[in-house]
Amino acid sequence: MPHAPERVETAADLDTVLRGGPFHVALRAAIAARGLPLQRVQHHLSRHGVRVGVTSLSYWQQGARRPQRPESLRAVRALEEILQLPDESLIRLLAENDGHATAHRAATRSYRSLAEASDVLDGLLAELETAPDCGLDVLCHHERVRIGDRRELAEQESHLIVRAHRDGVDRHVAVHQGDPGCAPEHMRVHALENCRTGRVRRHEDTGLLVAELLFDTRLRAGDTFLFRYGVTDGTAGTSREYARRFGTAGGQYALQVRFDTDVLPVHCHRFTQHSPAAPRSARRVLPLSARHRSVHLVEPRVRSGVVGIGWDWE
Q1: Rounded CA gap, 306 and 42, in Å?
Q2: Of 245, 248, 246, 243, whose CA–CA distance to 270 is shortest?
């Protein structure tokens, strides 16, 4: 009984956000009003025949991701029943917000989600039974990213020159992480030159994709190799940055971002992070070529950590 006043206040708040939204605030209020930890919500969903990860539920209530796929929408309808909400209340908020959801979707990941992605990546590499460097030193990595006419991360292409530091190396593992709200199952890996695609692993909650690129030759220690691959994405909303994580110091890295749309960003900048969980530093404005609709950075010798380019739309 001593908790009844708090329950009434929460219910009143819940009624308000169910009427006006946005979706993630209403979901968070509904979960708080029922006093359910996310693990229990996940358990109830599984009893309804819907599988959703705790991380996804957390992202939904933070506004970092939105339910979009059919399975996710089934989960939202089940949540209405589990959380004792009026029928269509959460689904309605999703539909009402769709027109401007892309503009308001979290475009950059929190430090916590970047750290979670780092842990997930280690697990995916373990599944492929490979070391993070695959026995290769990267001498040069030129990466090109294309932002599509919906301002989405449309695709990336990597051109690498590597050198084996042990005998028997015959593959490289590529890593791609889409923007918040992406659908890794719809991403496609393309082996473009001197390689072919092997095993591919995806992780929905973090938007990670890892793929083996097989060389069809075994390198000896000291041998160099040149290859090229790409990833077609285009599964998320408005993109505002692109970053690459490096586990160790290495060779040269160049990143070029090209914008398809006639509407260019108003500002572009580079940034670094010492680790996925560290604050960003070394922010510097980058010149944008209006004629070529592109911006780039060059790291003569990369350091361990994250380096990337961010941009602001009007």
Answers
A1: 33
A2: 243
What is the pTM assigned to this prediction? 0.66
Collapsing DSSP to helix, strand or coil, 130 comes out as coil
Sign of CA dihedral 37, 38, 43, 46: positive
Lowest model confidence (mean pLDDT) among 35-39, 162-166, 307-311:
35-39
Q: In degrees rounded to 5, what are phi and psi of residue 192? A: -100, -30
Q: Which distant-in-sequence residues (6+ apart) come within 8 Å of 194 by Cβ? A: 215, 225, 226, 227, 228
CB burial of 152-182 (b: ≥16 within 10 Å; e: otherwise) equals: bbbbbbbbbbbbbeeeebbbbbbbbbbbbbb
- The predicted structure's pLDDT at residue 112: 46
Q: For residue 225, give both structure tokens.
A: 């190799």
**Side-chain half-sphere of 6: how many Cα atoms within 13 Å?**
7
Calpha distance 122→157 (Å, rounded): 23
Q: What is the length of the chain?
A: 314
| Residues 6 or more apart in contact with residue 309 via CB below 8 angstroms | 241, 242, 243, 255, 257, 268, 269, 270, 271, 286, 295, 296, 297
